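2024-03-11 09:14:02 DEBUG pipeline.ingest accepted 1 chain
2024-03-11 09:14:02 DEBUG pipeline.ingest length=501
2024-03-11 09:14:03 DEBUG pipeline.predict start
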Amino acid sequence: MNLPRTLGELRHSEFSESRLRTRRVKDEMRENLIVRLRDGGENVFPGIVGYEDTVIPQIVNAILSRHNFILLGLRGQAKSRILRALTGLLDEQMPYVEGCEIHDNPYAPICRRCREMLAKCGDATHIAYLSPEERYVEKLATPDVTIADLIGDIDPIKAAKGGHELSSELTVHYGLLPRANRGIFAINELPDLAGKIQVGLFNIMQEGDVQIKGYPIRLPLDVAMVFSANPEDYTARGKIITPLKDRIGSEIRTHYPSTVDEGIAITAQEAWVQRDGFSLHVPKYVAEVIERIAFTAREDKRVDKRSGVSQRLPISAMENVISNAERRAISNGEHTVVPRISDIYAAMPAITGKLELEYEGEMKGADVVGRELIRTAVAAAYDQYFHGENMQQIIQWFDLGGTIQLQDTASAKEALDTLQTIQGLMEKLNALEVKDKAPAEVRVSAAEFVLEGLHAHKRIGRNEERVFTAGERQARREPVERERQERFRDEGPFRNKRGFN
């Protein structure tokens, strides 16, 4: 497509004056959204999982209402990703006066430079174009952000070079907000902005004017403004000024995945799992355990609820789990990477760093809390496959003195030879859809999951060296039983005289 390159050509193209003069950014987003909704509305925000019936309908309503809106949610709830996805509702190309810092509308320029250029060059004025991604400006709010950063400041170098008065608009160095003109301006963690900066924001949102170094400047910007914030900061602590809060049209609450399957889908989409050089097979129960760690942590009283547990936890954990399995495969010359539950314990660095602990959790330590979360997640996943299943034969094998050691570095062949000595274990793998002819790596992973599930339910024991033994109850019962037998042997004649036999 040959795009018009001068104002004269632009007038005779699809970018007509009547269209560009009256169609503001929010109108543009609304029109493109309506087109998508008429086409089915399934890909309004591609890649956003779990919000189809909650958050996305509210965002759609806000855009149809031409609102500035804010997303309120804890960390790791895809707020920034949603804001960046809004560029999908912008036109493929947007014409502006070439060289303009604030991307002025060729038919209705607001900066003095462009007005003077159009008066001088007329239809010969050069036109440039912006893509949707170039029309998105994002700023992370921090307490040190100034009005100069967001709105602009007087540039004495411009004044000196151009011979202008300091009060002239031509001396202004525009900030991020004016540079987002005719686009989307996003501020993450809005309450962290200082109060006076928030005042400058709502003033330009409502009135379109601002004072820079005491000089009043009129900037009727065409901007769709969107924000994100933590609910705790936005409400309870009073870090947001009321006039700005009042000017935000829609307040939309985000949330964590409501089901384990939704979480698994998000993790599968975001985690780096496609590695070069090895065939990878991630068993479903491993993915479930990883996801359940986050779900369990969000309910655990030792984890700070106000901070939340980011969806980045299972994503990072999944990557680390695969890497540990990959390391084992490389060391043992194997060609198929199959994660095990032991790999999840090896991924503790990817878990503990994502947890903000309360006092009780701090007293126990992040590693202890992390291990307990994994154990609880394993127990919950185990129940999904083996609830009501009779595991007595396996348990009895350990109760009779059987022990095995399963290190996370052991090769599949070595581990499988050890696991096959446990009576009744391999027959239970059918519940995991693992057949006798399955690769050794898959069978070992499944068998270890069974043992870890029994350990999580305290039916067999396991120490930190990954030696599986009799359960805690049996371990406590054996010394008592041995002492009783010895007393019975020593006191046998006496007991017979008393008639106890």
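2024-03-11 09:14:41 DEBUG pipeline.report The radius of gyration is 32 Å.
2024-03-11 09:14:41 DEBUG pipeline.predict end
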